[in-house]
Structure formats: C-alpha cells, structure tokens
Design brief:
The protein is built from five helices and no strands. The chain has one domain. It is mainly alpha-helical. The protein is elongated and about 50 Å long. Pfam families: DoxX (PF07681).
Length: 135
Amino acid sequence: MVVETSPTAEFFLVGRVLLGGVLAYLGISNMLDAGNKIEYARSMGVPIAGIAVPVSFVMLILGGLGILLGIYPMVASIGVIAFFVGVTPAMHAFWRIDDPDERSQEKTQFLVNLALLGSAVIVLALGTAPWPYTL
C-alpha cells in the first residue's frame, strides 16, 4: 500500500488527525467525568468498573494519540479496537432497552462505535506501511 505519494499522504494525514484527535478527545472527556462513567458502567453490569473504566480511558487516549502522531500505529489501533470491542456491546446494548427514544439513541451510539471500530481496523491494516508525516 502506498500512502507516501501526494495527495494520498496529505489525505491520510488529515484522516489520522481527525480520527486520532477525536479518539483522544473522547478519552479525555470521559476521564474528566470519571465518577459518572464508572457509576453508569456499574449500572450496566460491567465487572470491576472502578478499574475497567479508567483503563478504557487510557486505551482510548493513548490509542488516539498514537494514531494522530503515527507512533506505534499498530499498537495504538489494537488498543482502540480492544476498547470498542469491549465497550460497544456492554455500554450501548440497545436491544435490551424498551423505551423507543432511548433505544434509538443507544442504537445510534452503537453504530457510531462500530464505524470508529472499522476505522481502527483500517489503521491496523495500514500499520505496517510507512506512514508519512510521523514523529
């Protein structure tokens, strides 16, 4: 795969900045509301939520920064993939919700997470190719 040629390199950089930046931002945003996130995870039946939730924040922040900066992109994408594989079905289980409005919101969040998971899988696939504009 060639991502080093112009304009491919520039498009790839924009995609990395957008994806990695959003992932890191989400991790930081969630971390700043850790108490509520941990309580919500407990209410959803997440075991050892007091440990699992902060670890998930770190995975998302480091994975996002790794993708954004091109630092260990395969490791970063694996961390992001693990985050979404664990979090998506546990926290956005729309199939368990009876209220139609709440069910619709959770389904949307579930699908957004699947799209982000797909993006992380693409990053993993590109992880062995040379990345332009990396540190």
